[in-house]
Amino acid sequence: MQWKALALALLVEHGSGQGAPVPSGIPPMLRFQCSHLVIERLDPLVTPGSIPSPHLHQIVGGNSFNATMDPATHDLVKDSTCTSCTFTEDLSNYWTAVMYFRARNGTYKRVPQLPNLGLGGNGGITVYYIPPHSPNVSVTAFKPGFRMLVGDAASNKPGQDPKVCHRCMPKEGDNSNLNCAAPDTQTLPAEPCVGGIRSVITFPTCWDGVNTDTPDHKSHVAYPIKGNHDSTPDGGVCPDTHPVKIPQVMLETIWDTTPFNDKEIWPEDGSQPFVWSTNDKDGYTQHGDYVFGWKDDSLQRAMDARCTGDVCSVLQHQTFEESMKCTLPQTVKDDVDGWVASIPGQSPLA
Ligand SMILES: *[C@@H]1O[C@H](CO)[C@@H](O)[C@H](O)[C@H]1NC(C)=O
Ligand SMILES: *[C@@H]1O[C@H](CO)[C@@H](O)[C@H](O)[C@H]1NC(C)=O
Ligand SMILES: *[C@@H]1O[C@H](CO)[C@@H](O)[C@H](O)[C@H]1NC(C)=O
């Protein structure tokens, strides 16, 4: 529903490399890269304390990440000594499923990732925080302990209102269509994609104003009932139950499927060979988890300052080289780099 914001987000992709001047006329939105902290089977939001969690994730952000992260005691800001994201005040954690290629002989290889247009680092996740466009509409940054989840790791059918989708990327950046509208699909693309596969996960922008989390990690937040959360005439209406406008968090990952584009190595029946780490080859199970961990009021300041891109006068930033140094060892020792007989935690697909 955020066509306009995303149209402009795509324009930003051409000109907002770290330190690069931001083109004029682009509405405010933080857009920055977070490299991998670790790729492993942990999920402190959905299965806290479970070692391993049911499926493999790519995890980025502050290095206090661990299997439990009890909201009553775990302080992401105090307990982290670094972040894999550009802004050093952002000790939050973000995670998603990871993509695998399945060869004809039935073995699997994790699909590498590319830094997003204009950004650097080792791939990982591009994170957006988008405030309302109008300078006179405010947005309320998240409170300590805030968490939320988008998507359903057990889904086997398309969602009604897609917030998780794939784009088959052309060779050059594609400005033509926006967030989860055609040609984006909830299924994984059926044909080889010369520019890789982009996965987008868009979080809700309305909050109940009370709960930092709920048992399903979803009910305390809601999507606008009309349009996006912007103040323009086309949108900005939060439901009465969730009246507080929060920044729009969006996660974007570019999967470099190009080493696997030769149809000679695709399944003989012509189906596509990519599989989410949930063991899902349809594509409905990609999901995004968010555990808020910005230092003090830094996110609020950045939203109020209407910063754009990955340079912000009210935030500290580090180079991509520095952010790539922030990593964690795996707690669950899975081979996530070699060819494997099955995706960690999964049975081989039939
Ligand atoms: C996670 O970190 C917290 C504090 O940083 C610690 O108390 C807890 O024991 C850790 N849990 C695990 C499973 O390592
Ligand atoms: C399976 O196929 C892949 C891709 O062709 C190849 O790299 C791998 O070595 C093969 N594994 C086995 C066990 O044959
Ligand atoms: C907010 O800004 C818009 C356009 O810039 C203007 O039309 C509107 O009156 C302003 N609202 C308030 C409450 O200042």
Give an overview of the whole structure.
By secondary structure, this protein is mainly β. The protein has one domain. It is 8% helix and 22% strand. It has helices spanning 3-12, 76-79, 298-304, 320-325; strands at 29-34, 36-40, 57-61, 93-97, 99-102, 108-110, 113-114, 125-130, 147-151, 164-168, 197-202, 206-207, 221-222, 244-245, 248-255, 274-276, 287-291, 308-309. Strands 1, 7, 8, 10, 11, 15 and 18 form a seven-stranded mixed β-sheet that branches. The model is unreliable at 1-18 (pLDDT under 50). One 2-acetamido-2-deoxy-beta-D-glucopyranose is lined by residues 64, 66-68, 74, 79.
Write down the overall geometry.
globular
Order of helices and strands: HEEEHEEEEEEEEEEEEEEHEH
In total, the number of strands is 18
Count the DSSP helices: 4
Tell me roughly what share of residues is in helical segments: under 10%
The assigned structural class equals mainly beta
Detail the poorly predicted runs: 1-18
Biggest sheet character: 7 strands, mixed
If you compute it from the alpha carbons, what radius of gyration comes out, rounded to the nearest whole angstrom? Answer: 19 Å
The average pLDDT value, as a whole number, equals 89
Euclidean distance between termini CA atoms: 37 Å
What proportion strand?
A: 15-25%
